Amino acid sequence: MGLPDSSQDLSTEMEVDAFRRIFPLRFFERHLSESLRPDARPLGKARDTIVNPGLVSTADGSALAKIGSTTMLAAIRMEVMTPSTDSPDEGCIALEFHMPPICSPTVRPGRPADAAPVISKRLTDTILSSGMIDLKELCLVSGKAAWMGYLDIYCLNADGALFDAALLSAVAAFSNLEIPVVALNDNGRIVAISGGKDEDNASIIEKKAVNKEKRKLTLKNIPFSLTCILHKNYILADPTTEEESIMDTLVTVVLDASDQLVSLYKSGGTVLAYSSAVKSCVELARKRAKELKQILGEMDID
Amino acid sequence: MEIDRVDGRTPNQLRPLACSRNILHRPHGSASWSQGDTKVLAAVYGPKAGTKKNENAEKACFEVIWKPKTGQIGKVEKECEMILKRTIQSICVLTVNPNTTTSVIIQVVHDDGSLLPCAINAACAALVDAGIPMKHLAVAICCCLADNGYVVLDPNKLEEKKMSAFAYLVFPNTTLSVLPEGSSVAEGEPVEHGIITSVTHGVMSVDDYFLCVENGHAATASLSAFFRKNFQQSQRDSSKAG
Fold first, then answer.
1. How many CB atoms lie within 10 A of CB A232?
2. How many CB atoms lie within 10 A of CB B170?
3. Helix or strand or coil: residue A182?
4. How many angstroms separate the CA atoms of A275 and A282, rounded?
5. Torsions phi, psi of A194, nearest 5?
6. Distance CA A1, CA B138 (A)
7. ipTM, 2 dp
8. Which residues form the Exoribonuclease phosphorolytic domain (chain A) (predicted)?
């Protein structure tokens, strides 16, 4: 593509950083024509991903996920509640995604970020529709008591691909989750057993323990997501905030372990997605799902 | 094996469409769009001077306010607002009126399935009524996947609940061209096959998704024809009156 003469003259005299700020699109397109991005990643490669489970000791399950610089902290707290009458055997999950002012200079206290409720709803839809969690496992006493899981995800650093990192941290927190031990006491109410003291042990034998030991949830069909940017003929996987602000067409593909499409989310954008582009995005998402599966597997072993 | 739908439609048949424009006199543009029993009212105010805080001042800015029929505004409404805003931004020409804000207000009158596509169609009709410059229209359709793998278009609320998965798809409208080759082609596919917006719920295989997209293409042809006829009709009526 031909650059107009004015920027050609300026660019020979300008510093790289200044050129990046003043002509961001040209800066990126120069890199894209060499099939690279400014951070030297090839177009289809995601950033380095780290998952650390069990960081929050006061929560029943927690995980920190980092994709490049984007950092998400997820924590789950379980509480006993009465299930609704139309599903007496099922517990429920309440998910909330927070973007505190620490994560980005555009988020100020008192003005919640536009993206937060949208990502919150998308995460809830994705997790519930993928069937990762069997809500019947959260049942304690049918019709009387069931677990309610409050999952809070805090964005600590927003550097692009927020949905991917949030989903990864939620999945990791669920696999780290240990459901606390409870017992049914004389009044018919569920009581938590802390364990450890002798006097408590005696009373535990009297009370009917509803579950003997801290158990983990079985997760099937874990969803893995990848966000891609479509720009002219290029498809960039796992964008940073800078890339997202310049090129506005984002496609998020969520696949589960059995290669089914859980969600394909494209919300407007200057570039129209033709089936060839969608197929390439799905291919990239498949590769990414394999990588993420391996990372989660290593986390569990540790 | 064919699907039996409660109202006797074939799987590819849409509900009766109705669109009236210029129904409210205060907004600069307004439209009411109904597909069967789902009815949405859209109003457009703008362009007004100035953009919102973090928005680019070299482009026109859009804001969407979504009012549900009952209840308070929650995450569902915020998500619909965001999807509608980004869809409108991609179809409008943003450089004609820079540093302006155009407000689109959506009022849900009745929700009987396929609400978001209905709202997108209503918003397009209202934008045309207001005279906001656009590249093309956004034609929205809901495709759902029944358990036996059939794709059903434009479901009502009961059908949406029963189906294993559904997708809201938005395409540009089909063009009516004088040239024999038809519409312009990009990447070997006609321009109207490009997806502007896609939101899916439920798990489906990748092939099923592409099947939904294909069925969606077929439906956009009939929706585009309806838009065209409706706008031409009102054009003729207003020119007779004026």
1. 11
2. 29
3. strand
4. 10
5. -85, -35
6. 30
7. 0.90
8. 46-180, 222-287
